[in-house]
Write a structure and sequence with these properties.
alpha+beta; globular; 141 residues; 4 helices; 6 strands
């Protein structure tokens, strides 16, 4: 009787060990966040380059998505440069957004990051980040 229980416990441990990696892989894939098409087209419209997102952050709410989709590109500020960085601003009520475009020293492509400020005194929250490609480079890929 004791050997039957020991054998059953051993089989249970082996089956758990075999199932655990599969469950972990499934759990890692469930939380994937993608950049909404409205944000991709907005960044592409402001910079006149194809935006390829590589990182999406959870900070984007439905209100942000609808506001960014409704705001025309003309409401964003003119580009302002500081060193190897260019940024654009949009203020809507108490919320403001900032698009920062920079070119890392050893990279062939510029990087864009969209930030949100809930209030004028709040810390910036990232919304999306990715590469900027010219239209010819985007079609080649």
């Amino acid at each position: 009787m004791a050997s039957a229980i020991a054998l059953l416990m051993k089989k249970l441990l082996i089956s758990i060990a075999l199932l655990l990696p599969g469950l972990a892989a499934t759990a890692q894939n469930k939380g994937a966040v993608s950049t909404p098409p409205a944000v991709v087209s907005l960044i592409s419209g402001i910079t006149d380059k194809q935006f390829r997102p590589d990182t999406a952050f959870v900070a984007l709410s439905d209100q942000d998505e609808s506001l960014l989709a409704k705001e025309p590109v003309a409401n964003w500020s003119l580009p302002q440069s500081s060193g190897n960085m260019t940024y654009y601003n949009l203020v809507s009520g108490t919320r403001s957004y900032q698009l920062i475009v920079s070119r890392p020293p050893k990279s062939a492509y510029a990087t864009a990051m969209l930030l949100r400020y809930e209030t004028p005194k709040s810390k910036p929250e990232p919304i999306a980040r990715g590469m900027l490609l010219s239209e010819a480079e985007a079609k080649a890929k």
